From TrEMBL:
Transmembrane segments: none annotated. Residues 1-77 form the GIY-YIG domain. CDD domains: GIY-YIG_unchar_3. This is GIY-YIG nuclease family protein. Belongs to the UPF0213 family. Pfam families: GIY-YIG (PF01541). InterPro entries: GIY-YIG_endonuc (IPR000305), GIY-YIG_endonuc_sf (IPR035901), UPF0213_domain (IPR050190). SUPFAM superfamilies: GIY-YIG endonuclease (SSF82771). PROSITE patterns: GIY_YIG (PS50164).
């Protein structure tokens, strides 16, 4: 399984779109600031949206599409499933 996810620093803050095959590990890395980069520099740690795909190709295509979306489109996507912008990390199953 492959995952496309959106992290946020807050409702009005910075958004980050990523893709991984291990959602728990990858979000943990973002949250802990394990690697230097965009999410560490901008404090983007809250998992607010996740989509699951069968193939890497599907996930990559979706990630690229979401990265081209306008911010308000991403916000609408998040609010359809997660209107409170809650951190979904603890709702993830085991890796």
């Amino acid at each position: 399984m492959y995952f496309v996810y959106i992290l946020a620093s807050g409702r009005a803050g910075t958004l980050y779109v990523g893709m991984t095959n291990d959602i728990r590990r990858r979000v943990w890395e973002h949250r802990e600031g394990v690697a230097d980069g965009f999410t560490k520099a901008h404090g983007v740690k809250r998992l607010v949206h996740v989509e699951v795909f069968e193939t890497a190709l599907q996930a990559i295509q979706r990630e690229k599409a979401l990265k081209r979306w306008r911010r308000n489109w991403k916000c609408n996507l998040i609010e359809r499933e997660n209107p409170e912008w809650s951190d979904l990390f603890d709702t993830l199953g085991p890796s």
